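Ops channel
N.P.: pipeline sanity check, posting one input/output pair.
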């Protein structure tokens, strides 16, 4: 067995023979080129094999207590030692004994009295063959590892291509629609401004502003998601008060919620310190709350709660909205199958906001999940490990 500490390691040969004279002869022939371990019976040989695995075994057949055939059988039944080549040492030249040795798994045999040249050649040949087999085994394992790595790379490439195709599809479709609306409304305002009263002008201006704002939010999500895929968004976890962040996002979205008379409820009952990237968590909260507003009918309610337990902070955004089927929930966080539908007031979107939420939460080694019932509402829940 090779010794890593030795730059020119010798192969280790276990010699098993109960006759001192035989051991002496073998040592005189092999000790210069190989490292020899000596066992004077089969029982001792098996004990030695528990401590060290040699590169080859020279095994006498005729021994007391346990003969060479029994020792060979035990060696070949052991997963750790079954591949070690065994050369029988025998005074027998009877064909039946030789065949029996091969049946037990022996690689070769050497007859007594020993011929030094024959012993060297047979030992050298079987050690070379043993090492060649081990090299082939290692090459095969490396090949399997390379194939697995290639398979994973191909799967990642396929996934990346699907995501890229979906991304460009979103850009082509979802940016085109709002821009068409903005262009149409602005053209109407330009062409008819002289004949419109201030109320009508204000209405058109409000529609243009609303469409522009939606387009801007869409573009922000597209750019954020693209930057995330390229690894260009810095990850900077710091400690901050979650309550302040939730209050800030509720305040920022209050105007949109008021348009539908939706109540935004801050349900955080205690101060919760969170160690995370504040910008990412802010984006997650904004997307989840805005999504809840979009799919909650007028006069509905949205509640944001959080609790600490099991070494994590769990944040929930719960609404009384239109809810989703199990099939829809299954598609929410997959770009290749994601889809969007209008909100309760025909609000538009792409589904990219939820994908961004998933990316940001997983960046924190957290998780995001959804529970929903059609006509009853949805709960979007994300968890962040406590530092």
């Amino acid at each position: 067995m090779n010794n890593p500490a030795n730059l020119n390691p010798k192969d280790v040969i276990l010699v098993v023979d109960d006759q001192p004279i035989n051991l002496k002869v073998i040592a005189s022939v092999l000790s210069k080129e190989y490292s020899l371990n000596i066992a004077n019976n089969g029982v001792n040989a098996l004990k030695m094999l528990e401590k060290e695995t040699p590169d080859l075994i020279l095994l006498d057949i005729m021994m007391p207590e346990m003969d060479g055939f029994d020792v060979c059988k035990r060696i070949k039944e052991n997963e750790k030692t079954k591949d070690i080549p065994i050369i029988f040492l025998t005074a027998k030249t009877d064909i039946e004994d030789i065949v029996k040795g091969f049946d037990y798994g022996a690689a070769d045999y050497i007859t007594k009295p020993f011929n030094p040249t024959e012993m060297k050649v047979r030992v050298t040949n079987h050690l070379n063959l043993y090492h060649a087999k081990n090299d082939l085994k290692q090459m095969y394992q490396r090949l399997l590892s390379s194939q697995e790595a290639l398979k994973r790379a191909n799967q990642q490439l396929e996934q990346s291509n699907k995501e890229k195709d979906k991304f460009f599809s979103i850009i082509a479709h979802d940016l085109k629609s709002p821009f068409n609306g903005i262009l149409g409304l602005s053209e109407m305002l330009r062409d008819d401004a002289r004949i419109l009263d201030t109320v009508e002008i204000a209405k058109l201006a409000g529609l243009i502003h609303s469409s522009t704002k939606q387009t801007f939010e869409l573009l922000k999500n597209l750019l954020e998601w693209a930057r995330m895929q390229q690894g260009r968004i810095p990850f900077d976890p710091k400690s901050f008060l979650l309550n302040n962040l939730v209050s800030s996002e509720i305040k920022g979205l209050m105007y949109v919620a008021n348009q539908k008379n939706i109540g935004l409820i801050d349900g955080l009952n205690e101060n919760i310190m969170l160690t995370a990237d504040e910008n990412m968590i802010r984006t997650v909260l904004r997307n989840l709350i805005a999504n809840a507003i979009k799919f909650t009918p007028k006069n509905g309610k949205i509640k944001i709660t959080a609790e600490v337990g099991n070494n994590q902070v769990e944040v929930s955004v719960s609404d009384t909205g239109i809810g989703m089927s199990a099939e829809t929930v299954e598609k929410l966080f997959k770009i290749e199958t994601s889809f969007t539908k209008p909100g309760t007031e025909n609000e538009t979107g792409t589904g990219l906001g939820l994908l961004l939420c998933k990316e940001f939460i997983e960046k924190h080694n957290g998780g995001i999940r959804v529970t929903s019932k059609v006509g009853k509402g949805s709960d979007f829940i994300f968890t962040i490990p406590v530092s």
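N.P.: looks fine end to end. The longest strand covers residues 301-309.
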